[in-house]
Amino acid sequence: MNRHALMWILWPSFLLAGVGSAIVFALVDPYDIVVFGSLHFSREVVYTAGFFIFWLATALSSALTLFMAPPEAWSKQPDDAL
Questions:
Q1: Which of 13, 70, 74, 76 is the most buried (most CB within 10 A)?
Q2: Under a CB-based contact definition with an 8 Å cutoff, are residues 58 and 13 in contact?
Q3: pTM of the model as a whole
Q4: 3-class SS at 35?
């Protein structure tokens, strides 16, 4: 996998993770989230963990999309398209 393909996965997933975490945490207070019945975490920890969970989920989605694309679609360099 070349670096262009990696950026096709990471950049859109980063943007969507930001949007997803903004929407979720606009509706959910991190103090309302309880893990294993009694563990409470600070807001910063929950915001950070939530962002990285969203980033991982959307990166897996982007990687699956790229994996299912024909090989010639993602093996081209940007200069090859001209």
A1: 13
A2: yes
A3: 0.76
A4: strand
